[in-house]
Sequence to fold (1276 residues):
Amino acid sequence: MKQIFLDVLPLEKAAQLLLMRAASAFEGLDRTETVDVASSGSLITAEPVFARYSSPFYHSSAMDGYAVKFADTFSASEAVPLHLTTGKDAFYVDTGDPLPEGFNAVVMIEDVNIVGDCIEIYQPLTPYQNVRTIGEDIVSTEMIAPMHHRIRPVDMGAMLASGCLKVKVQKKPVVTIIPTGTELITPQQAEKGLKAPEIIEYNSVVLSSMVDELGGLSVRNPIVKDDFEEIKNAIYEASLTSDIVIVNAGSGRGSEDFTAAAINELGELLINGVSIKPGKPFIAGMVNNKPVLGIPGYPVSAYITFQLFARPLIYKYLGLTPEDPDQITAIVSRNMASPMGVDEFIRVKVGVVKDKYVATPISRGAGLLMSVVRADAMLRIPADSEGIKAGSEAKIDLINSISKINNTIVCIGSHDNTLDLLANALKVKHPELSLSSAHVGSMGGLMALKRSEAHICGTHLLDEETGQYNVPYVNKFFTPGEVVLVTLVHRQQGLIVKKGNPKGIKGIEDLVRDDLLFINRQQGSGTRLLLDKNLRERNINPYLIKGYDREEYTHMSVASAVLTGLCDTGMAIYSAAVALDLAFIPIATERYDIAITAELLNTEKISALLDIIRNDKSFREAVERMGGYDTSSMGETV
Amino acid sequence: MKQIFLDVLPLEKAAQLLLMRAASAFEGLDRTETVDVASSGSLITAEPVFARYSSPFYHSSAMDGYAVKFADTFSASEAVPLHLTTGKDAFYVDTGDPLPEGFNAVVMIEDVNIVGDCIEIYQPLTPYQNVRTIGEDIVSTEMIAPMHHRIRPVDMGAMLASGCLKVKVQKKPVVTIIPTGTELITPQQAEKGLKAPEIIEYNSVVLSSMVDELGGLSVRNPIVKDDFEEIKNAIYEASLTSDIVIVNAGSGRGSEDFTAAAINELGELLINGVSIKPGKPFIAGMVNNKPVLGIPGYPVSAYITFQLFARPLIYKYLGLTPEDPDQITAIVSRNMASPMGVDEFIRVKVGVVKDKYVATPISRGAGLLMSVVRADAMLRIPADSEGIKAGSEAKIDLINSISKINNTIVCIGSHDNTLDLLANALKVKHPELSLSSAHVGSMGGLMALKRSEAHICGTHLLDEETGQYNVPYVNKFFTPGEVVLVTLVHRQQGLIVKKGNPKGIKGIEDLVRDDLLFINRQQGSGTRLLLDKNLRERNINPYLIKGYDREEYTHMSVASAVLTGLCDTGMAIYSAAVALDLAFIPIATERYDIAITAELLNTEKISALLDIIRNDKSFREAVERMGGYDTSSMGETV
Fold:
């Protein structure tokens, strides 16, 4: 195996190079097939479709009534009704019936009087009155659909109506996805449980679904180990049966990244690294005249490089140009620095606050799939920019629809699992509404509310002086009446300890024990304030606690420090213990409120949310079932 | 069979009544099933999905490098590098590898120097530097997706990543479509050819595709004859196996409309007529506690009543609220009167002209499926309005996307099949661009151009005085330089006669023959002007021609008058003869130009179009293959 190093390419250049090479390879393939119109939905026409027959292909009645010759009816009037003999001068026709030869108008049944074997008519008819003439809808030889048109239900109707029963369409490109990685296991294997270093292989499911959504035909291959020969063979085999091959992971430059070398040995390596973030380790080449894409393993990198490189290839195969994503202009709520020379793609949440779209970045890590799950839109900071200043406008590419964004309540602040249950309860009662949360801590949330980036904020800030929750902080940062506080829950804070509590920790007093190593939360956090208050009340000198000076930044990192043996105990909420299956010693309860921008209180979506908080019994029960929560004050305005 | 007449209901009332009854019927059904996440794409969650494991579920390296304990590295500096023994204080890790227990940071491979069995470090590390901590992406117990959420590829990824391998989803509602009509034949039967009064049954294909697109599971039943008992049986059988039944056609009040009576006998008729246009004969009821919808037979009525009544039921079954269609505000280009008390749905073409969206109505007939095929949007004139004035603004519901509309060249004017070929050639070369035509005649087209409703206009107006085409008219209506004329083709006008020319007509001179019946075009039409010029040149007195005073309004209606024996001959273009398989005697050629708003000449889309007209050989050949066209002046500016 020979390691290959090409220059990292700029995005546009890389995309163009790959598309050009793939396009010329596709041109040599027979990419069309003929199918029944009835099974052609969503396929792409491979040639224009022309009407074979006119529709209607005979003059037919547009009404229930009598077919007549309009020239016979000139003399008809209310004063002197005209009599026409049925079966001779007039024939009964239902809607859709053909007119007898030579007949060219229809008088509606409700406009005639039947007198013996005659009908009486009171008004002259005009030529083709109440008649669907030949070709009224479709004229034979006219074009129903051009080439490269995505066939919609109504197009199928028009094709059939005009006698086109088969249609030549573009074949779906076969896209084979090869997951690689020795540590990967299939979802089926994971049913028995997981142990490190196993990772559930899910990228191939995401990628294949995206292929199918775009009109491709995905094939998911079995997982291939990190072995050069095995990967090489898998790529070669796939290149024989596919139009596009995607290798997932193994595209970096680590000791087990073999894709570039494999492509290089089997064919030609075109791209080995692109100056984008995330997604830099993307590689691509041609094997057997088929494009082979090395998509990075981090899920966000995989998602973004698929959109940038695989999607255009699928469109090109189908004869289409990708539609531009829907764009809106939003106000960016934070400074976002970005290195020059790199196209950076930042997932953002978008809220409509005071009739403006506000885009707030979500954590940027390439490993954070949830940042895509939670994103409303993608913001691209181009290579020639050093970033975007807070308050400036930017174009963003929508992931969720505008109407979904308009119907979303944006919650930024401290996270609590209750918010998840609240989001769900909202969806159950109002499927059109969404509650979407970003987790930045209580203080960050209040600041976001202040900057109009959010509609509501989850907060649990203890004021040391007064012992009050949230109110002193709201009073400090907001003008009176600007924000309303509504209590969601009281929740338990406590000491997280290993399962079975092997060191027999009973409470705060034990923290000074010599055999215990503690881990703390950062200064200013609600949990730190709560701990310090508890220590003061018990007259415990914090500096006697081993590890008091070691700080973590989230409940979960405290819990995982306990789990992995970095320490014996730390303070966090009950749900963090549950999440990692650890034991929990309750110490105190704290009030978790929702701060709401007051002027939104009467909007439909906030009213719906408050109604659930105040009156939805099943929501309340679901919260209580989680454990560690007291819902007795739920919905009270503070 | 007892005929039932209920009051015609207003739209909102009818929609609400049906939805309410269907919703309470659906509530009694088990509408959920559990599926593998990998096959859950686009399905709707039936309960919230909570993470089973954290992801990552162990601390893992985010880089290729060495795992260390950050506390060991405090003293490292460029001046005094720190040495750590590999296999004891430092362990090599690839990206994704778990950290050894007690290790909590990773130094990147490129930042160390390997010295024997030690690594040299030049900077202290921070806690968890280059480490993906437990739950960094997903925390066990956190909500991945709420209930009633449409599962996207990234959601599937997040579910699998967090150990959710199965997901409870809403079942797809089974929607059975029963086509009824004695005259209907299947597309397969139509392969052998069509004869009156046969009609190819296509509505069920359109309706079932729409069902499937919305996430339902459509079943297309065989065609049922217009027979009360057979229709009743078909409805009953379908109600046993379906969640929703759709009967197509037979919903009016004609002699063969049995659906209402059948529903009434089998269950309860709720709706028998709705005050909408088109779609008034819509009916609905409950049979076996299943909603049964009688959708009218006219294709536009079928399309609109499906959207208004069937779509909300499918969403309701799935636990969803239909998303509002994307709306834009457009300037309405024509007066549109609409009766009070009726909600009218008008298909419109939308063009971006001078940065404004202009909506132009397409013919309103309920039988014109092509009016839906060609529509960009739907304009609703509510029941409490008498219509919309030209020049006023209206909200329209988009059928095509905004980006498609932005990329569309709007052509209003005289129709010629060459425009279809041009539209296709444009699609072949520029898949993102579209040429969309509305047919209102040359003069109507020039007026549309004048009112900025169109970008280009097809025109063939002969000036009697000068014998010139188009130029005198453009000079009359536009200021100099406002419009550019580009020749598309010269096309043949001639006499259309029955196949085989049974009366042996040779030319204009024969029109005065006693045994011939002629049919004329309306005064002011280009064809009438051309005929009169030819008569004058031959000194023929028009009033000696039998039928000279009978006028038709289109080429196709002249041709169909010949086909159906109303007359022996009439003047029209060659393609009208081809469309109805008639014979043609060429008389003269006329110039067919495209008038283009001058200020658009350099826009991308018009340039692309002109490039095809001027330089695309295969387009030119396709036009010539149609016959009756001379392309020698194609692309010349007049």
Observations:
- The CA atoms of residues 34 and 255 of chain B lie 48 Å apart.
- The longest helix of chain B spans residues 299-318.
- Chain B touches chain A through 126 residues (CB under 8 Å).
